[in-house]
Amino acid sequence: MATFRDVAEILFAVVLILGVFVSLTPQLKNVIKSKSTAGISFTTLYLGTIGSFFTATNAVLLNGMYLRYDIVGVLTGVKKSLLLFQLVSLWVMYVINYIVYCIYFKDEPKEQGSELAATPKEHETITDDLDLGGNHYQVEFPEKSHSRMESKQWKIILASTAFYLLAFVETIFIAVVLVVLFGIPDSRLTLFADILGYITAFITVIQWMPQIIKTIKNKSSGSFSIVMMLVMMPGSFVILFYLAYLSGERFSTWFSYLVAGIQQIILLVCIIYFDYIAPRGVSIKALFKRKKDQPDTNEGATTYVNVDEQTHLVGSSVNTKNNSTFTQQ
């Protein structure tokens, strides 16, 4: 008979599955709608894609035996099946986001400490001098546009994708060979799964740092979805609770989710500040600085009065344009 803990585990697993689609779909929608990847860190997306694949492979290798409902029982089989489905779904959603990123990728302008709003001109021109029949002319030619294939960032994306595909094929090949030769469970198969788990833990710890750095440099989130963060950040702590309390996993298993959740909080704060607070002219210092008492005296204040042709202008500076002002010294 199912206990309260069993029901809680199943409900949490269902919530996590729904959370996967709810959290990553807004980012997908943002990129497709804007047809731009500006503000999105390729490194963060790439690490998420690799990490989710290694996590799913690790879970399948360690929990594959629990899919035998006739041996482990229906209740245990259902719980493990939901866990595996959640992890595989996460990987699939990351892959879809990765593919969409590659489709809509455009080389971003070099960051100069300004916001992404400072976009390049649509039609750059080159000015050249031209002599025709002794007459000197200055002629503007349209600058040769560089294709995406010539972009340095695009070449990095292609090289990274090739490495990912190689790692994908090698991981699947090793896993299949170990399963065929030794079956499930086996100590060698467990060792391989643990290695993938350690790699995933390291990736999860550093995954969100590139996006934080990019957001701070750009002073804008660009096409990065704040809705995704609003869903994903609490989700990290839900997974942390699930692993640490309900499943009773070891510290090494759930620590990476704790670090990821903290990084997501930092990223969310950066997005809220740069997209919603900074545009209103409020600086970071102003958020923490106490409001000083305003002086009661009007000394040094500027007084504005209407000026006409008969106004005396002794010791004054006047702007004689329409709606001129008189500044009292």
Automatic annotation (TrEMBL):
The keyword Lipid biosynthesis does not apply. Its main location: membrane. It is a multi-pass membrane protein. It is found in: Membrane. It comes from the Eukaryota. The keyword Transcription regulation does not apply. GO terms for cellular component: membrane. The chain crosses the membrane at residues 6-25, 37-62, 82-104, 156-184, 190-210, 222-245, 257-278. Keywords: Membrane, Transmembrane, Transmembrane helix. This is PQ-loop repeat-containing protein.
